[in-house]
Amino acid sequence: MRIVSQILLLGLLLGSPVAAQAEPLDFTEKLDIGISTDEISITSDFRGADLTIFGAIDGFDAKVLAQARYNIVVALEGPKENTTVRKKERVFGIWINTNSMTFEMVPESYSLSSTRDIDSIAPPSDMNNMGIGVNHMPLTPIGFIGDGSNLTEFRDAFRRLKETTGVYERDPGGVQFISSSLFKASVRLPADVPNGVHIVRAYLFRDGVFVAAKALPLRVVKTGLEQAITRAAHESPLFYGLTAVLLAVITGWLASIVFRRD
Amino acid sequence: MTVYLPIAELSVNILIILGMGAAVGFLSGMFGVGGGFLITPLLIFYNIPPVVAVATGANQVVASSISGAITHFRRGTIDIKLGTVLLCGGLAGATLGIWLFALLRRIGQLDLVISLAYVLLLGTVGTLMLWESIIALRRASKNETVTLRRPGQHNWIHGLPLKMRFKKSKIYLSVIPVATLGFAIGILTSVMGVGGGFIMVPAMIYLLRIPTNVVVGTSLFQIVFVSAYTVIIQATANYTVDIVLAFVLMIAGVIGAQYGVRVGQRLRGEQLRALLALLVLAVGIRLAIELIIPPKEVYSVVSAGLGF
């Protein structure tokens, strides 16, 4: 089981948009990042937290570093799911879901942290290619979308809703250099952080050109009574349903005994 | 004091849920109804996703109906044979209902259908009850003796084939209308999270002409089994039963019901019915308003993963 998940993880890492990029020129810089743990247990009273990631640039050019021409972007991507956006319209006086669009495998949560606003780090087209940032991540619709004229509208709605509910976040300034080549980045785990394998991705840019990237998996495991209940509901639903009924039968039956007057 | 509801995936104030359960329990004790048709809309008003509200409402109905069913069983006021025919229809209806539920959810129209169904049902039942009780109240104020319609005259339903003798009810009746009634109530239970007693009891009295003394017990018999079945199927097919929410509601509900019964015994029947009718109408109107006013956000995002 563990091996399988590691292979899967490896696949995920290799399949990342960065790996797909052709290695540009012959930069000497390498990026290293580390987190204190590869697994986070979250209790049921979790209200969100900051995760700090440390990193270093290896083989840096001292002159470039001194002139602050290196930029770093760190993203924490949640597990990916097909996600549907629906739109309500007034039909015969009542508000009804009329249109919908499903996007293929988008992260359930996304937290971005960078040395400065990512749009001033590299040209938007590069960010689009690499899928860095809420506005640049690929939102590929599945199925029939007509002439595609409402694609922008649904993409915008998706991004806006994800950001207003706090599951997509960005912090331009969240990455800080703590010594010449050492940096720390803080990314946000939202209160309703999804279970599963998250991926921390770090990208190094030099003068607006992508240089190196590094990715680390981070397992988020929810613990506590509520989580045990959720797991039971999904993994042994028949037992769960029977328990719910039994609970109701016992409660009703006990009440009829306690308050019995005849 | 907040508690996290694992299936609804949100934190709620436990005092509000307890209050809701107790209030609905009180009313259900007072009026002798299951309370499912009140608890589900109240949960929706409190932002519990309708899918969870419906499935959890059915679970609450099991708890609030079982003690009544036990009492009627002890007194021998359940027609088991009649109840079983109702139940067969009910289980089939609930199965179809769950399938409908999953289909509507997939195409994104479930919330709308639940709200519309409630508006229609509560609006119709509330208006009919109010009308009936106003007439009764007028008669009472004029000191007229209330003449109940005699059940005993036959209607077209009694001409249907496949007749069966129900000894306890002392009635000879086709199984078709009985099973059909059970079937319709079964659909309501699984799509709306109601027990359906408030429709089943009048239908059994006025349409099927079943003697009043066995009507309540027999309908409770059917409600307990159909809602229990619904809970199990909802849990296995849609993962929408929130056991934490259900437990808080049922604890508060069964206690509230005891006090409701005592208050109910002091009020007159037609006053009770008028009050219940107003309450039913109020809930229906509130849901209707929700459908008509422009929503704050016309878009919504749903992940396929159900949190997993």
Describe the overall structure:
The complex is a heterodimer of chains A (262) and B (308). With 262 residues, chain A is of the alpha+beta class. Helices cover 29% and strands 39% of the residues of chain A. Chain A is built from 7 helices and 13 strands. Chain A has a 6-stranded mixed sheet with strand order 2-13-12-4-7-9. Chain A has a 4-stranded antiparallel sheet with strand order 1-3-11-10, with no helix packed on it. Chain A has a 3-stranded antiparallel sheet with strand order 5-6-8, with helices on one face. Chain B has 308 residues and is mostly helical. Chain B has one domain (10-292). Chain B contains 10 helices and 5 strands; from the N terminus they run E-E-H-H-H-H-H-E-E-H-H-H-H-H-E. The interface between A and B is large, with 55 and 54 residues. Strand 5 of chain A pairs antiparallel with strand 5 (299-303) of chain B.
Topology (elements, then pairings):
The complex is a heterodimer of chains A (262) and B (308).
Chain A: H1 2-14, H2 17-20, E1 30-34, E2 39-42, E3 49-58, H3 62-66, E4 70-77, E5 80-91, E6 94-107, E7 110-114, H4 124-130, E8 141-142, H5 151-164, E9 168-172, E10 175-177, E11 182-189, E12 196-206, E13 209-222, H6 225-235, H7 237-258
Parallel strand pairs in A: 2-13, 7-9
Antiparallel strand pairs in A: 1-3, 3-11, 4-7, 4-12, 5-6, 6-8, 10-11, 12-13
Helix pairs in contact in A: 6-7
Chain B: E1 2-5, E2 10-13, H1 14-31, H2 36-45, H3 50-75, H4 80-106, H5 110-141, E3 163-166, E4 171-174, H6 175-192, H7 197-207, H8 212-237, H9 243-266, H10 269-292, E5 299-303
Antiparallel strand pairs in B: 1-2, 3-4
